[in-house]
Amino acid sequence: MSQSRFQVFDNIRDPAACAPRLAALRNELRRRGLDGFIVPRADEHQGEYVPPHAERLAWLTGFGGSAGTAVVLLDKAAIFVDGRYTLQVREQVDTALFTPVASNDTPPSAWIGENLTAGAKLGYDPWLHTPAAVDRLARAAEEAGGTLVPVADNPVDAVWSDRPAPPRAPARPYPLAFAGVSAADKLTQLREKLAKARSDLLVVSDPHNLAWLFNLRGADLTHTPLALGYALVPREGRATIFMDEVKIGADLREALEPLADIAGPEAFPAAVAAAAAGGRRVRLDAATAAAALREIVTAAGGTADVGDDPVSLMKAVKNEAEKAGARAAQRRDAVAVARFLAWFAREAPGGRLTEIDAAVALENFRAETNALVDISFDTIAGAGPNAALPHYHVTTASNRRIGEGIFLVDSGAQYEDGTTDITRTIAVGTPTAEMRDRFTRVLKGHIAIATAVFPRGTSGAQLDSFARRPLWEAGLDFDHGTGHGVGAFLSVHEGPHRISKLGTTPLEPGVILSNEPGYYKEGEYGIRIENLVLVEERDIPGADRPMLGFETLTLAPIDLALVEPSLLTQEERAWLDAYHARVREELMPALEGADRVWLEQATRPVGQ
């Protein structure tokens, strides 16, 4: 297969570079009179995906995950990651320099409380933390007898000599045919919500919300079509968008000018202060607004109302055009995935394929749709023990040959009409009885979510255990959420809805989520089965309250070689057979030759 268009597999982490970088940072801290500094994996928008110039944590530590924090003191340092990255952090980071800490058990605030010395000054960049995070860190520093100190400019930037420039990719209008609702109508709905909340002004700090609200898309981030910027939306009056004007071409300017003024990002802090003056109530998004914004509003005499950005819920509930686009994108993507799976079934037994070969092949099958804008994240292609790393990223250094055992591939695509995300676990050769048992338990959990029926008002946290029960019954579990929200040609990870112990937002019709339970045996293999699902209303005869359920959007065979039929109930077998019949019906007309033969076999009834 040809080279990847959208992925880089170079091993860009150099552990030897970390020691001099850490030493340079400590020297800079001493020069400033600081005893430590907090380095989150964040930019000014607190996003999961950040541009290269904001990858301070990766530059300093070598850690390449999407979530983490380092706390650097003059005599010790720690890096905090969640359960997704427990193994990865030890492979990428020099643990003689940074002690890995499980953030689920010991968050940075707890570690600071135990390790900061009395009288110490711990620095932080107020643009890289939310108000709630700063409050937690400040309490921890105070309990240790120290002080949390904001810095006007980031000391990491001062020692990062070859730091990339901020992105300035062109932004563009997003067609109404895909958006479904005009930006003018969205602004009207938003202002009604601001009036109801008695907010005078909303600061739109999340670029996803900016893109959705104003029907624009950009290319400032890898794999996510965002234009980084802010907006101020008053309850009454004209909105203002703050974005590098180099990004705004004539077509986008023409679309935006009836809706908003346009200013450069350098004007944003002063504009927030001016808008907050006179005691105005300014809504700041608790998830993405920087603590610096709270200080600006308060200093100007305004009231910083830190809470939910109403745009997040508006965006999460897909309209009819967005739902239609999602279904079309999933069908298109399914054909590419099926062609890949058929190709893999033919090629993998020869023992010549590597993880990179598989990742590139899958991307190229998607490119052959002639509709691929980008992939939605770097493909997770893990063979054997690499499959046990939930967020594994293959590099030329880690690239394994795909041999007998399990191969896990988690991938997605960005199409103009929708965003996809799918994981399939594939047996190469004959799987062991243990692999079949674990896979089938994961499948049972997947089916439990897919078939769940629940009353309005139910949250993802209430459903999360459905996916875990078959694993719990065998003393097993997995250390990530069961599902995340997915955007409409936006981020593959979209809040606020999720199926997780932390997913407290009630599910609503129109929300798209992933359904992806898993199991990971360290050093041996990993299993995950992921489809996207759409929350929909369910008409149940005799029901005394409104009920909801899921429409499964993703269409691709689930590997029957890994299924142990004796572990499935009659209802579970019926679900799997019906799902495969639907996959066969939807995809067969788009496939040819050997791919059709493969699909017929891959979607046969369970046990045949």
Automatic annotation (TrEMBL):
GO terms for cellular component: cytoplasm. Signal peptide: none annotated. Residues 326-537 form the Peptidase M24 domain. InterPro entries: Creatin/AminoP/Spt16_N (IPR029149), Creatinase/aminopeptidase-like (IPR036005), Creatinase_N (IPR000587), Pept_M24 (IPR000994), Pept_M24B (IPR033740), Peptidase_M24_C (IPR032416), X-Pro_aminopeptidase_P (IPR050422). It holds the Pfam family Creatinase_N_2. Keywords: Aminopeptidase, Hydrolase, Metal-binding, Protease. This is Xaa-Pro aminopeptidase. It comes from Chelatococcus composti.
